[in-house]
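Case 722 in the screening queue. Each case pairs one protein sequence with one candidate compound; here the compound is heme C. For every case the pipeline is the same: read the inputs, emit a complex structure as tokens, and attach any notable structural observations.

Predict complex for case 722.
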Amino acid sequence: LITANRTRFAAAIACFILASCGGSSSGVDDVISSAKASAVVRASTSDSNGKVTLPLEVLSSGGSYTVTTTVNAPSGQSATRLWMRIHNLAFDNEASVQVNDGPWIAVSNQSASIEGGGKAYGGIGGGFSTLKLSVPITSAQNGTNTVRFRFNGTDGVVSGYRVLGFNLRDASSNNLVDEGSNFQWTDPTTWKPGYPSTTDISAGEQLWRTATIVDSPLNHSTLQAHCMDCHAQDGRDLYKFNFSDNSIMQRSMFHGLNETQGKQIASYIRTLTAKYGVPGSNCRPWNPPYQPGDKLDSRPRTDWTCGAGIDSVMDNDLDSQRWIFPDGINKDAVATGKQINLREIPISFQLPDWMHWLPRIHPKDAWGDYFTNSNLNKEYAGDGGGSATYNMRSVLASGGSSYVTDPKSLFLNQLYYWGVEYGERFQPPSKGVDYLYTIDQQKRIYSTVQWQLMKSWELAQDFNLETLCPTAYRNAGAPKAESRSWCGQWRFAFDVSPHIQKFPPENSMFGSTVAHYYFANAWYELQILLNPGSGAHNVHLPVDWQYTYGLVDDLSRNSGRLEPMRNLLLVVKGSQEMDNGVGVTDVNRGWTTRDTSPLDVWKFGANGIWKDASDSTRTAVVNAFLNTWLDRSESFDVNTWQRVDQAGGSNTCGWSERRLCWSWYVPGQLALGMTSSVDFPTNVFQQIPQMRTDGVDGGLLNRFAAELGRMYPNGNYASLMH
Ligand code: HEC
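Case 722 output:
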């Protein structure tokens, strides 16, 4: 079957490039996924009971490929749409679908209606890796219906897509196919090596580590990278997320290996059960790593990476409210002195799937010797001609767990400086210019920083860091150690954000400005989930909170989709990180108005981020946060608060200032060296009256004005009190 698919490859690609694949399905392999033809179904699926086994893997080594299913819809004739949930639709017309003898429908942003955040963030080829969408149909019938899914060929990146569910729907969006009697899920816990012999398995491992491979069926250039270089070194990522044998075989052939070699690699990956045990039920390719969800922490720590599953992604941002405020909206739930568990609060923001963590270009292939001989490379595993004297894999292997948890060991320092090797020192001559990077330059830069994140993931898994880092944090004196986290102050995840990489939003490698901002947000969100700082931040590391709040607005400006609850969670978490006992005498490590501002929760209320929320929700949430913020700010002696004109200060005031402005400052006036008066005291002065109109509690606003009046006695804040 697969060989046949390969020999047809050239024709299929031509068909794809000429975009002439519609109409007839001749020349395309059909795989029947129904009881009647179970013999040709892949080994991992079992549908002898007549059910369609999900997911449908519409995957190939590059060429066109079709999966055929049959489902029963007693009143199918009334269907007006084919509804689907699909993982990895990366470009228009990657997929075509057909119902019975109806026309093939190419699935695109034009032909399909896409639901919710998926649509808002760019639809097919946009931010979300898994989309819910539907296309209009007229060819469904009562009883048995044949539904075909075709992959139209690769773009040089993807190997196809997975159908996670589908249905025929009538004009009122009722499902006409009964899910229970028509669908079942494949069970990865039953998967065994296809080639169980030790010879094949060690050949598979050898290929994984050393086989010479090509980029893709569209570009046959040989890569310096091997499978192990872009993935986890021993393939545990493919194992952990339960990539199937079929997917591994097709992808091996995608890179120029043959079917037997692909099957050997897949067989090797299956043997990792002995090393790592059986991955939990959320460990599937489409479930976004670390996606937050209800009771996530009660699942095994080793499964944290698999996240809470795609079903934990809320359709609406406001749906998060009941997890943030299970007992109704009140200030205790958002108190800055507490520690909210973001891992367990579902959000409506679908994080990138594993395939979007992987680098598309290995840094050796992107930058050649510059990377090979860099300390960025050397400090990972000792490879290349860099001058560094340590590498993370060997210090962790030889040092054992005490090396991670002993605050006197060099570990945190070494990890930090490995981060710096990319974040501050990696300047290849052909890198390009900030904000002017070409698409090609963006792809190479992005892949390089993804490589470092992916290898950080590998280190975290291989050396048990998700368990040890909280202890390391506690031993180093961090007051708010998370129960699960990554280590140290380097920003491995938020460094991947195209925002911090200074990519041009208007000319984005992600295909659209909105997708740029989706990814810009996604990696900040992941940083905060993985390692928010444990109350031990240093200036903007490991998170630059105020930028995170700003990126939420950049995204909604481009998508039209508002996220008041995700924004609230970020400001609450950031404020809790600032409320760490250090206070205001050291604003680089303690409390600062920059990262805790109640204005960042309010964000212009009913005229801004809270537009779609009810009046009562909006005012209750803003009041609750303003109240806890005042409790904390009022507790500090304003005379001890660091100011810009004191030692180490900047002696000018701006929007991103951590210190208070001069004690004599009058909001709105340009003082010493200021080119604009966009700063905290001015913003508060202007916005208190607007907050009053918006329904924020008058007593709290009087307290707010009084607190600013203590900070800035000449500021006339008393005029804002009522
Ligand atoms: C240059 C880096 C790189 C190399 C080398 C590489 N991969 Fe990947 N791999 C990726 C990326 C990126 C993706 C995600 C592709 C996408 O977005 O559809 C991926 C996806 C996959 C998938 C999932 C495909 C799917 O759609 O289910 C498998 C399986 C896989 N790779 C196996 C391999 C094997 C086996 C090798 C060696 C023969 C290999 N990879 C070499 C980067 C790489």
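Case 722 observations:
- The mean pLDDT is 93.
- The CA atoms of residues 395 and 491 lie 20 Å apart.
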